Amino acid sequence: MHDLLTWVQSLPTLWIYLVAALIVAGETAVIFGLLVPGEATLLLVGFLTYNGTLRLGPALLAMIVAAVAGDGLAFRAGRRYGPRLRAGLGHRVGPERWGRADAMLARLGGRGVFAARWVAFARTLVPRLAGAAGMPYRRFVLWNLAGVVTWVGGSVLLGHLAGESYDTVSRLLGRATGAALVLLAGLLAVVLAGRWLGRNPDPVRALLSRAGALPPVRWLTARYGVLFFLVAMRVGPAWTLLLNLAAGLLLLFAAGLAIAGLLAVAVRNSGLAALDDAVAGWFAARRTPDAADVTAVVVSVVRGSVLILLVALVAAVLAWRSRPWRTDLLSVVGTAGAFVPLVVLAVVAELTGPHGGGGSAPLPTQNAVVAASFCTLAWLVSRGARWPVAVAAWTTAAAGVLGVGGARLYLGLDTASGSAAAVLLGVLWTVVFMVAWATRDRAVRELEQPVDHAQPSSEGHRSPVEPC
């Protein structure tokens, strides 16, 4: 790396600007970023501004202009060749799925363009997808410019401030990009799992019905179907419901283990652990006996078990005031039994961390349960409430999560990387049920929509509501 830097510094300044700009623009314009992400180039540019080879202001301006130009070319390519893509290989996807993708991009809009700028590979493809989906260029260019300025500026300034630590920062940033991709894949899996749970609020019966289509199960049903029926009658509906809920909780437990394992891998490979000692030292230097005593009292009061009891109380009150709910798993964990997933999460977090806990735990149990409890409370309170109440509930939840997590860092009970992983686990755990509940509510509303029977027979199957 030292020889490479020496060779780059020997080049004419104009050539350095030109080559760096072409790499940054080509990352999206010619899909070069699928092979080599552009963070390394921007970090190198920042390092060259640190040692005086380049000037910081012109370097920032040149990289921003190059990134915007590359994204603009990619957007135009998506707009021009998008219909050809759908008519060619894309016809295998089907018009219904294309329509869903267009609707999703329309809902996310510029926020998706802004966020994609910070993720390798995603920033290479999203401009083309936005152009192909017909997003207005004015909306795209404003959100994309915001993403480019923050991403380019942050990367160049990081390389400039890193100075002689360029090699370390470049390696850690590359690992963080891979971890971000893993987290995005995990978030997509969480959302898909939530949507499946929303469409199948009784997951055990749904899985059993699909298993019933398998040849061995069909043979057993055909041969011993009467025996199974007699056993079911003997068990009775009450015990059947309890067994079904118990099997559903086992599925949730398995899902929790999968999410916790994914987060552990992402955090372990993100480079966050390199900051643990620095963060711990910063808090230790500001710790005083009196403040530590007060903080310890707060942490002991606002802990997972107390918050789980609070969730149980709030859920019981809200369930008593609401309309009757169904006896499937999603209805139970989304109303009076909202505390049950928190208990499952506590067991999962305890199992995924080393025995005995302590500051070295990769997934501190308290932070995970506290984050999930605050998010669950905000979800229960804001569901169906007016937007000021919803904003206040979620703001309080965010403040509670950050406050408890910061207090535990201040006391030295957890590490920064462990706290980040635990909070993500708690938030993603709540997201599963939020997405499931929203999916089920949307499906119920669609079923309850009145059908206009006065329409002609040729339009009898058309929905009275236009798709979003």
TrEMBL record:
Native source species: Micromonospora chokoriensis
Annotated compartments: Cell membrane
Primary localisation category: membrane
Family: Belongs to the DedA family.
The keyword Cell membrane is annotated on this UniProt entry: yes
Biased composition regions of type Basic and acidic residues, renumbered to the chain: 459-468
Name of the protein in its database record: Undecaprenyl-diphosphatase
UniProt entry keywords in alphabetical sequence: Cell membrane, Membrane, Transmembrane, Transmembrane helix
Record bears the keyword ATP-binding: no
InterPro entries: DedA-like, VTT_dom
Residue intervals of the VTT domain: 36-160
A Pfam family per the record: VTT_dom
Bilayer-crossing regions: 14-36, 56-77, 140-161, 173-197, 242-267, 296-320, 329-349, 361-382, 389-411, 417-438
PANTHER family: INNER MEMBRANE PROTEIN DEDA-RELATED (PTHR30353), INNER MEMBRANE PROTEIN YABI (PTHR30353:SF15)
